[in-house]
UniProtKB/TrEMBL annotation:
This is MFS transporter. Pfam families: MFS_1. Signal peptide: none annotated. The chain crosses the membrane at residues 20-40, 52-71, 83-106, 118-137, 149-177, 183-200, 250-270, 282-303, 315-333, 339-357, 369-387, 407-425. Gene3D superfamilies: MFS general substrate transporter like domains. Residues 17-429 form the Major facilitator superfamily (MFS) profile domain. GO terms for molecular function: nitrate transmembrane transporter activity.
Length: 441
């Protein structure tokens, strides 16, 4: 029997695996910005209501969010590369169908009868968003416990800047290549990104060793000697069931629904908010939303390291207070500079909290990291689909002022999030106190 890692054909390193996952997530997450910069064009071409438009622009978040649950858990069986590629493949199918519809029907032949087809292909194109929970597990398996915040901060932060970059670029592409040509160009970029992930990615050592015939226990021992600290426990279904029975999973789901789902919702909704409420041009709105998205994403990188140092609960509590302050400002102003500042405040708070929450997953639920990541990433991101139609309904009920008052919903969710963070903190403090007491006391 081989005695060391040198006796096996092992591929990959933690840095390379992190690079691959980040590239894959970057191109998968870009689908969030697929429709939002062009929302008014689709609304006009198909004669849609504000609520229907809200559903359409958030469609890419729908399927990709829900698929995070089973695909994230599936990582416990194979390490992540296979589910990652399947999700990106589904995104390619969706983007191909969406682009074909535009080529065939836009603008003169588009009407409301095409709405279901556009919705379905837009939803499929968003399957790439589902790679997030897969990449969280894949990255967690590669990195030691004391570097989880950093690694996941880089992965989530850099990957999440894609919607911001494309929100900014798409209006420019519209002017350069035309409306349909811009989506053809994006389809080509998606193919390039998927190819890059395919070439660079590799599953963690434990999974590679198992595929080369090692017994589970031996593979675990060899991988641990090489530096791997986090391993799957049981089957994917067992991981989902086990994590679902742990109340902390649902506390983290709630927080992520608000901050990451809410973040995705703003990426899709803010272009409409700027154009319809504040009278900003499409290209300027794209730039403002792009800065918001990039800033809110990149702040996850230092936030992950901060969470490693001061604790996830403390970091999350600070972030919720920041979101609450920004939401209250946005709810009562009608000024482009102040609105831009307010969105940056909200984006900062959301980005910090996103990093803090996933820093807590391996710590709070080490026995079912993949299953918990699936629930948190999937149901959390689902907020990106749920919230834009609610904003649209608020506008229909209240008129233009509803664009601003809708941000009170974020203030309410931030307050609820503070309660969840406090509950987690109290629970951990109680456990530490009990463990520190002498036996028999």
């Amino acid at each position: 029997m081989p005695n060391s890692m040198d006796d096996f054909n092992i591929d990959g390193t933690p840095k390379r695996a992190l690079t691959a996952a980040t590239i894959g997530f970057f191109f998968g997450a870009a689908a969030v910005a697929l429709l939002s910069p062009a929302a008014t064009r689709f609304q006009s071409a198909m004669d849609l209501s504000t609520t229907q438009t809200g559903f359409l622009v958030s469609a890419p978040v729908l399927l990709g969010s829900l698929l995070r649950i089973p695909f994230g858990a599936w990582c416990d069986k194979n390490g992540g590369r296979k589910p990652f590629l399947i999700l990106l493949g589904l995104s390619i199918i969706g983007m191909a169908g969406f682009t074909t519809l535009l080529v065939l029907y836009y603008p003169d032949r588009m009407d409301a009868s095409l709405y279901p087809a556009f919705f379905v292909f837009a939803a499929l194109s968003g399957c790439g968003i589902g790679v997030f929970s897969v990449g969280v597990s894949q990255t967690s398996f590669w990195y030691p416990n004391d570097e989880q915040g950093f690694a996941l901060g880089v992965y989530g932060g850099v990957g999440n800047i894609a919607p911001g970059i494309f929100t900014f670029l798409i209006p420019i592409l519209f002017a350069t290549f035309g409306f349909t040509g811009s989506y053809i160009a994006w389809f080509g970029l998606l193919l390039v990104g998927v190819a890059a992930y395919y070439v660079l990615s590799a599953d963690a050592w434990y999974f590679q060793l198992q595929r080369q015939g090692l017994d589970e226990a031996v593979a675990r021992e060899r991988a641990r000697e090489a530096g791997q600290e986090i391993f799957p426990e049981g089957t994917p279904l067992e991981g989902l069931i086990k994590s679902a029975k742990i109340w902390k999973t649902w506390a983290l789901v709630g927080g992520y629904f608000f901050t990451f789902g809410g973040f995705l919702a703003l990426v899709t909704w803010l272009p409409t908010y700027y154009q319809q409420y504040l009278g900003v041009g499409a290209q300027t709105a794209g730039g403002l939303v792009g800065v918001f998205t990039i800033f809110g994403s990149l702040i996850r990188v230092p936030a992950g390291s901060i969470a490693d140092n001061i604790g996830g609960e403390e970091t999350a509590a600070i972030s919720m207070g920041i979101v609450l302050a920004g939401s209250l400002l946005l709810a009562f102003i009608q000024s482009v500079p102040l609105a831009f500042f307010g969105t940056l405040v909200v984006g900062a708070g959301m980005g910090i909290n996103n990093a803090a929450l996933f820093q807590k997953v391996p710590e709070e639920i080490p026995e079912a990291v993949s299953g918990a990541s699936g629930w948190i990433g999937g149901l959390g991101a689902f907020g990106g689909f749920v919230l834009p139609p609610i904003f649209g309904t608020i506008v229909e009920l209240m008129g233009p002022v509803g664009y601003a008052r809708g941000f009170l919903l974020y203030g309410l969710l931030a307050a609820i999030g503070l309660g969840s963070v406090y509950t987690l903190y109290r629970s951990d403090s109680r456990v530490e106190t009990e463990e520190s007491q002498p036996v028999g006391s």
